[in-house]
Amino acid sequence: MSGSFGVATAIGRVFLSVLFILAGIGKAAAPAGTISYIESKGLPLAPVAYVGTVALELGGGLLLLIGFQARLVALAFAVFCVASALVFHLDFSDPVQQAMLLKNFAIAGGMLFVFAHGAGGFSLDGRRGA
User: Fold this and answer.
1) What DSSP line would sit under 70-112, residue for residue?
2) Residue 39 confidence (pLDDT)
3) Confidence of residue 1 (pLDDT cuts 50, 70, 90)
4) What pLDDT is recorded for position 2?
5) CA–CA distance, 17 with 41 (Å, rounded to integer)
6) What is the separation of C-alpha 112 from the centre of its chain, rounded to a whole number of angstroms?
7) What is the reported pTM?
8) Domain range spanning residue 83?
């Protein structure tokens, strides 16, 4: 059972991380569009928010992928997912926005599992005994 648990944990971590790595690459490739979208929601310091978002998505995504400091990264992603859902996806008249809100909450739930249980044996944290 522990072998399949470790494999499932690693696969889950990879699936979660790839989502953020690809999102970070997309935002890095189109800074103007991302900054405009952030500004459209009335957030101050949109360029700073953009840099922080790209750093979290790319850097945190890579850290989660290899399982280094996974609990801390997962907690940061959980907070990020809930916060971004509440800022960007509250238009309940739009079914797409409803789905995005629920998707963000579901991802936050997955990240809370990583936070609670760690990165698993197939990770740098697992090798360090974290």
Assistant:
1) HHHHHHHHHHHHHHHHHHH---TTSHHHHHHHHHHHHHHHHHH
2) 95
3) very low
4) 66
5) 26
6) 11
7) 0.93
8) 2-128
> What tokens appear for 55 in the block?
């750093």
Residue 49's nearest CA partner among 83, 22, 72 is: 83
* pLDDT tens figures, 70-96: 999 999 999 999 999 999 999 999 999
In angstroms, the CA 115 to CA 112 distance is 5
Q: How many domains does the chain divide into?
A: 1
SS3 119: coil
Ramachandran class of 19: left when φ > 0, alpha when ψ lies in -120 to 50, beta otherwise: alpha
Encoded tokens for 21? 């790595």
Give the separation between CA 81 and CA 34, rounded to whole angstroms: 16
Burial class (CB in 10 A: 0-12, 13-18, 19+), 74: buried
